[in-house]
Structure formats: structure tokens, C-alpha cells
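Q: Convert this sequence to C-alpha cells.
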Amino acid sequence: MSNQKQLRVVFMGTPDFSVPTLEALIKAGHSIVGVYCQPDKQKGRGKQVQMPPVKVAALNHNLPVFQPVTLRDEQVQAELEALNPDVVVVIAYGKILPPWLIRLPQYGCINVHASILPKYRGAAPIHYAILNGDTKTGVTIMHMDDGLDTGDIIDIVETDILCGETTGQLFERMALLGGKTIVPVLTRWVNGEIVATPQDDTMATHTAKITKEMGQIDWSKPANEIVNLIRGLNPAPGCYTYLNGKRLKVWSAEVVPSDTTHGLIDVHGKHVPIAISATTVPGTIVSKIAGLGVFCGDGNIILLTEVQPENKKRISAIDFINGHQIKEGIVFGDSI
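A:
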């Protein structure tokens, strides 16, 4: 087993996703000389100022916390140089590191990234793995350079994406995987036991920012694509459609085997009749027995199982049907 050097570590991260990696470094006995995260922000209807999760974790361990608005500042540079880190560990920090910082520590700036690089560079790799229907993802430990997620790869740990898994669920698993991975990989890195591998830039894809507008369901799309959208935008920003002029959020759905010739769908082994014809258009509710069965653009059916009416709580699709006099043949609309 590799001998572990006790390192002076500057840690940079902000959300929940970063916390397991910070906790792992602390538990391993490294000297965390500074924790950098985004400034506190107002959140919620009450506009109360909330600390980032990384700051909360750092303060619980009595670690020094720094929250600069920008890293491109002479005072911030002097501050980091005075901390004299052996290594900087970055995970979901939310700021671009300037070149002087990337070259500051002896063992470099090490990034924990939630995809199998070079696929899904950028800010939303977990979302896009789900949106694109991938069955595998992973955590890449990368030696940072001046580009955005372009540094040489130190190690990759893969994991399967589970059937029906949402971005929120995968987010939690990947956060724990990052925490589990960082310490042994960092030990081997500083001991010179790993030679980093350059990325193949021709295989790179970049993830765009996730927006609320992406959540509107286009029922003309294939059923699998719609279900992946619902999974990929759960829990935020969420998917939605319109019914009788009101927005309806959709939290969970699945593609169900269908026999449109005989007017049946298979819901977990139970044959359920559907109301379908040659003139049925995408977005039409064709079944309300086991949930909201909706006809999609490729002729397949998806079953909505959990929804949220406008200004109401999340409920099962069955409860929604029972409380809103939903009829077969109603078509989900495009707008209010």
C-alpha cells in the first residue's frame, strides 16, 4: 500500500456535492490550510442569507474559510501564496482558476469532475448523462490546466447509471464516489505512482447551462427522450406541461410496453386498456387506470406516476386523476 504523505491542502468547492471530498481529506489527516467557496447567498422567498454547504462543513471542523468574489485579485493571490499549499483540490467550486493559481502548488491543482472525461466537460455533467440516456458515468480525477476541464487525467472510477435514476439520486452517489476516490488517488499521485494521461480533445463534449425553459415537455419527441428529460431535470429545475391552461409539473414517468394494435399497455405485468386511434396526437392522455398514460411522438406510451398541480404539493398521478376529473382524450397543451 502507498505511503501517505501529510499534505498542506487548499480545498475549493461550494455545494453539497463537494462535502464528501472535503470530509475524506480531513479524515485522512491532511492539513486543510484553507477552504474556499462561493459567497453566502440569499435564498428562498424570505431572502434569508444561507451559507454554502462546504462552508458549513468547514466551520464544523474549525477550518479557515475564504469566500472571495473573484480569484483575480492581488490580495487573494497574496493570501493563497501565504497558505503555501502542497496541492489544491477543486470540486464544483464554481469559479475559473487563474493561471498563477494552477501553477502555485507543488503537486498542482487537482479537480474531481463528475463524468468520464473528455465527455461532458462543463458545469452540468450529471444532468447530461441522464438527459442523453447514458448507462455509465464516473468520476475523473484531473490535473488541471488553463482550459475548462481539459487537464490530463490522473484516474477514472466508473459507475453504472441505474434504471430510472434521477439526476438528484445520481448526484448523491457521485458525491460519495468522489469522496471515496480522492484520498487513495491523491496519495498515489504525490508519490509519483501515476502518470497523467492527456485527454483526446476530439472526443470532448461540452455541457450547456441547465435552464428552466428546458423543462417544458415536447410530446412530439420519442417516449424515451421525454422520460430521460423528466429524470434529468429532477429535482431541479423540473419538467412541466400544461393541462387546461394550468402548469403541471411532472416528477416521475416510465416508458411502458404498448400494443397499440390491440389498444393495450403493460404496466408491471398487468394489461391496461388505452384509448387510441389513427388520429391520436402526441400529448393525448390515452389511459388513466394505473397513472396518466400519454401518447408520444414515436407512437409509444409513457406513464406519468407523480405530478404536481400548479401551486400545489406533489401527488401520485392516481390521486391527481381522482381529484381533477381527468378524461381520456384530453391533450396536454404547449402554453397557458
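The first helix runs from residue 19 to 27.
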